[in-house]
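Tip: read the tokens left to right.
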């Protein structure tokens, strides 16, 4: 009788122990096959996700993350409809989606925030040194017939600069009316246009040093146009960017700092991905923060504590659970 009672006690203790195992322990048994959308192959968004895939898969052998090409605008829709389980995008775009602002002006009920990459994407106007003005305000106020280059319509970079100019009530069509030209081209084509004297500046976006910008600086003297504090404030309010200081010496001949509008990468996830899997992903990334910082120079500011900061869209409950347990958020 005594042995039987002892056996019952042991069984109850074991059941209680297993029932109270936190996600942190149970995560070692988590399994999932996930499809993740980055940006263009080799681009910032793609690199973000390849690093996530490596770190998470090393921590959880039964979690497979396949990274496929994507686009930061389209990734939000693709995650919402379940075509992607998770994806990289810009926090400013998540802000537009949260506020219902075009082109993300429809509901995204199945998109959740996962973590902030904490990188810095600088938006700046990279101009020939002989361009007649030194600031964006001068360009606008004097209605300079600028021949500029930017990426394709609807891309994050094009939208950012379109909205930045809109804060001063200027459109691409206005620039054409001034006698200027707007070239929607890839970075390499923009470089060629400036080299050949067919363009004056590139509306640029870069995580630190961009190869195409470094290449251009070797054959043409370049400068970065300055944004005024008032214009930066207007842009930040309109687009959700924050002001960040681009360091001096980033590119040849640019021996001065420039305050720029800036965004950060945000990893999003489909709401139907289980809490256990979302928990396992953010836990692996937090514990692998050192490795992620070394994955790419742009991620050198990544910290575990910073993962839940600067996010737009509702946070996935699995991620929220981990952040709360670690004291990273209330």
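Filled-in amino acids:
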């Amino acid at each position: 009788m005594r042995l039987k009672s002892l056996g019952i006690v042991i069984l109850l203790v074991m059941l209680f122990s297993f029932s109270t195992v936190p996600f942190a322990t149970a995560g070692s048994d988590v399994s999932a096959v996930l499809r993740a959308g980055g940006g263009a192959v080799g681009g910032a968004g793609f690199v973000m996700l390849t690093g996530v895939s490596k770190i998470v898969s090393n921590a959880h052998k039964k979690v497979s993350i396949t990274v496929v090409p994507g686009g930061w605008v389209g990734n939000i829709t693709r995650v919402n409809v379940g075509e992607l389980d998770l994806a990289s995008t810009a926090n400013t775009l998540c802000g537009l989606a949260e506020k219902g602002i075009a082109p993300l002006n429809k509901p995204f009920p199945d998109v959740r925030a996962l973590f902030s990459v904490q990188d810095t994407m600088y938006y700046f106007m990279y101009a020939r040194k002989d361009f007649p003005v030194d600031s964006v305000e001068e360009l606008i106020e004097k209605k300079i017939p600028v021949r500029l280059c930017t990426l394709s319509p609807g891309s994050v970079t094009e939208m950012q600069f379109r909205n930045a100019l809109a804060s001063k009530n200027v459109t691409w069509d206005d620039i054409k009316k001034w006698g200027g030209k707007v070239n929607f081209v890839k970075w390499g084509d923009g470089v060629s246009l400036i080299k050949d004297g067919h363009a004056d500046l590139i509306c640029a976006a870069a995580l630190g040093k961009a190869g195409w910008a470094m290449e251009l600086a070797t054959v043409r003297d370049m400068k970065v146009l300055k944004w005024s504090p008032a214009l930066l404030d207007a842009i930040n309010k309109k687009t959700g960017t924050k002001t960040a200081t681009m360091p001096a010496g980033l590119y040849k001949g640019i021996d001065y700092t420039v305050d720029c509008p800036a965004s950060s990468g945000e990893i999003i996830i489909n709401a139907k991905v289980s809490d256990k899997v979302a928990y396992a992903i953010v836990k692996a990334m937090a514990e692998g923060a050192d490795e992620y910082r070394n994955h790419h120079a742009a991620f050198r500011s990544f910290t575990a504590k910073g993962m839940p900061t600067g996010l737009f869209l509702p946070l996935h409950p699995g991620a929220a659970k981990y952040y709360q347990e670690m004291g990273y958020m209330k």
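Residues 1-27 have pLDDT under 50 and may be disordered. The chain has two domains: 22-119+264-326, 124-263.
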